[in-house]
From TrEMBL:
Biological or metabolic pathway of the protein: Amino-acid biosynthesis; L-tyrosine biosynthesis; (4-hydroxyphenyl)pyruvate from prephenate (NADP(+) route): step 1/1
Domain annotation Prephenate/arogenate dehydrogenase: ranges: 14-297
Record InterPro entries: 6-PGluconate_DH-like_C_sf, 6PGDH_NADP-bd, NAD(P)-bd_dom_sf, Preph/Arog_dehydrog, Prephen_DH, Prephenate_DH_fun
Family: Belongs to the prephenate/arogenate dehydrogenase family.
EC number: 1.3.1.13
Xref: Pfam families: NAD_binding_2 (PF03446)
Organismal lineage: Eukaryota, Fungi, Dikarya, Ascomycota, Saccharomycotina
Catalytic reactions of this protein: prephenate + NADP(+) = 3-(4-hydroxyphenyl)pyruvate + CO2 + NADPH
Protein name as catalogued: Prephenate dehydrogenase [NADP(+)]
UniProt key word Amino-acid biosynthesis: yes
Keyword Nucleus: no
Organism (species): Saccharomyces uvarum
Amino acid sequence: MVSSEKVQQWKATKYIGIIGLGDMGLLYANKFSDAGWKVICCDREDFYEDLKEKHASAKFEVVKNGHLVSRRSDYIIYSVEASNINKIVEMYGPSSKVGTIVGGQTSCKLPEIKAFEQHLPKDCDIITVHSLHGPKVNTEGQPLVIINHRSQYPESFEFVDSVMSCLKSKQVYLTYEEHDKITADTQAVTHAAFLSMGSAWAKIKVYPWTLGMNKWYGGLENVKVNISLRIYSNKWHVYAGLAITNPSAHQQILQYATSSTELFTLMLDNKKQGLTERLLQARKFVFGKHTGLLLLDDTILEKYSLSKNTVNDDTDSKPLPNSHLSLLAIVDSWYQLGINPYEHMICSTPLFRIFLGVSEYLFLTPGLLEQTIDAAIHDQSFRKDDLEFVISAREWSSIVSFSNFELYKKQFQTVQEFFEPMLPEANRIGNEMIKTILSHSKEPLTQ
Ligand SMILES: NC(=O)C1=CN([C@@H]2O[C@H](COP(=O)(O)OP(=O)(O)OC[C@H]3O[C@@H](n4cnc5c(N)ncnc54)[C@H](OP(=O)(O)O)[C@@H]3O)[C@@H](O)[C@H]2O)C=CC1
Ligand SMILES: O=C(O)C(=O)Cc1ccc(O)cc1
């Protein structure tokens, strides 16, 4: 434990540098400078004048480029696009002050670590981080991974730990290999599922919340819509970077597409027994040891709809039962890959916990799985949607496995444009929904 005198001395003498003043860089710059650390930031040189003016009254300093940040900082954090990390570290890394500590915020650590090893002077230590949440989520209590990759100075690790402690996040210490394996299981496949839902709706030109009580109605459906649109309201490079640059993620996303295809085929072939047996095995593997309360309650989530309809508007219609293919497929994927999602809670993002929560609800609410299988086999109402969903899941998997950033961007932005008019409203409702879900799960899910 570092003494408070020591921390005060560091705050008075040391500088934290942030290269990349985008959403996450700005979050860190504000948090660290509010906590009394001296912070120097930069973004691209072209933005310097604008940023200097925009942040004129901030507690942190804006400088022209990464060289100027690097030569003065005692801890440098690269908070830039994953696909550019090598180029940017190559550019500014050699300007790092002698003996400084360097880290980054990119979501997959292998390319970042490689870039640091290749371009940083040998006298620099490498201690890198990853906040497992988006820039608008309260940092308190959320997982924050700290990777002590190379430190030759005894105080380096304590220093980074002290700086990070002002985020009040749950600090988790891993190697970069452990980090990348876990986040492939949690983040990458979660995003693949919600990206596929969104692109399926966009392809059939459906805004699901406009169909009244008839279709896509209820708490589980609200989660699907709100989380999907939340992802599409963000920047494509965040999702592309963490999926494409992480080799383990390719396998997870491919399994998700394969599970979707195989379950859908069983539905088309009317193989109720085969479908039931496969899903019961998956349930036993993933939720077999589950005890206690479920994380999510469908009724809590019912009010977070983008729909302007109220139940009374549609009293004659009954919601059509959904096959919930996207949720069946994730539990099947975990089973096929031998992943216990509860073991990854230390490194979970809010979206992953919500995805696990809705899957848990579907598989563990008495009678709901049986009712869903019945609908999947006998009711054709969601067949067209499910077909598009399967195609979308396979498309995303191909794009990721071919490491095609350009196609990823194009596919993402096409869907984004389709939902554009609704994104601000979806974000507002999604934020409220997430707040409610997180406040109902103070303790992370346990088994
Ligand atoms: N957003 C999220 O939810 C999370 C993101 N991350 C990761 O954190 C990193 C940053 O993400 P985020 O803040 O969302 O992304 P942003 O796009 O908001 O921020 C990245 C910033 O870096 C700037 N940049 C690019 N090149 C340079 C350069 N040579 N010198 C200085 N700045 C440069 C970018 O400018 P320009 O836009 O012009 O390229 C941009 O402003 C990514 O690797 C992301 O994967 C991690 C956790 C959560
Ligand atoms: O919660 C999620 O999965 C998000 O979408 C936000 C996010 C994006 C990238 C990260 O590296 C961490 C969190």
